[in-house]
Amino acid sequence: MGIEQQGLKRHLRLGTIIMALIGVGLGGSIANAGSDDKYRAGDRSSGYTYAAKETRAMQDDDFANPAYIWIDQGEALWSTAEGAAGKSCSTCHDDAADTMKGVATRYPAYDKSLGKMKSTEQQINICRVKQMQAKPFKWESSQMLSMTAYVNSQSRGMAMNVKVDGAAAPFFEKGKAFFNERRGQLNMACKNCHEDNAGNMARANLLSEGQSTGFPLYRLKWQKLGSIHRRFRGCNKNVRAKPYGYGSDEYVNLELYVGWRGRGLPIETPAVRN
Amino acid sequence: MAVAVVAMAAAMPVVADAGVALVKYEVTGGESIAKSLTGKPGDAAKGRGLAIHRKKGNCLACHAMPIPEQSFHGNIGPDLAGVASRYSAGELRLRLVDATIVNKDTIMPAFYRTAGLHRVLKKFKDKTVLKAQEVEDILAYLLTLK
Predict the structure, then answer these.
(1) Of A38, A96, A176, B22, which has the fewest Cβ atoms less than 10 A away?
(2) The domain spanning residue B14 has which CATH number?
(3) Alpha carbon of B20: minimum distance to chain A alpha carbons (Å)
(4) Residue A190 is a catalytic residue
(5) What pTM does this model have?
């Protein structure tokens, strides 16, 4: 993977430069493009509608979107056999464009054998370990981000629609409680910023509703793709609270609640944000 | 004196029960901390600096203030220009110490409190955001905003 990752970095740098050039070029035309209605549903809006023109322009053009480095890697991994069973994702799932369509709209989903919710990342690792007899990907690794982004991007434009009743209900309630619970030395809940103050400025940052429909996404600040759990950890640390682990039950339940908050919003993986 | 008696009658002793030595203070009438936390006067110039400092007051994250050399003032809370004409020193001190005493749903952090917080990062555990004297310094600065 070493060489491949170096290559990835090189591409990224190139991609970023190209993207910056195209971004500047698109700024004007996007400003005239007008409506962002497709990023709204009822009283809910994607972070896209809060993003700067230049940031939107990067997301709007797959060619300019720096996240496509990872999507391309995900596509390659999809049909790469790994593990003792000699299988790849495509051995079981064929063409991702058909079989993975809609996955992002319904994850996290309840898993009967686990007795709890599982996220897309966790399903990917279940498949790797059980079906492929391959090693699980590390949560925030370039491979996991690539695969998750590739899988989620197959649902682009489809409405977020996680199931929160039935077996999912108690997990949904936990996620909701997490969202509304104050934490950290600064004693703030997700709700304080993303519900009560969406649309307001926190210093130079325009607060959005904290929607999850673009993940994994390319964050200019990170200079790379990142998972929704990375974002949760960052927000926790910003209020000086102890974060939870990647893939923790707490974050998966939170992800479910956050997904529900964004019901009806289109999946936009891989989004671009600052 | 009469005022003091009324204040005493409504006094609500607040316990700083976090294991570290927080200065004890009294909230009178649910809206004011009349006495200085340190007994020393605050330094308004220092207070202005602390209000700007991102790891101290960071007040500009949420408030517009008459601090023109800093760009990007937040608008989560009210503009603090003229705030000393609207509130007494004691009322302002209370809002700095623990604004949730006035409004339990406020987003404004309690700058001098360690009790009742959830999952505080180790580095900040049992520490207040501002030291007692820093509260007094920021207060001295706020009192210049007439």
Answers:
(1) A38
(2) 1.10.760.10
(3) 15
(4) no
(5) 0.84
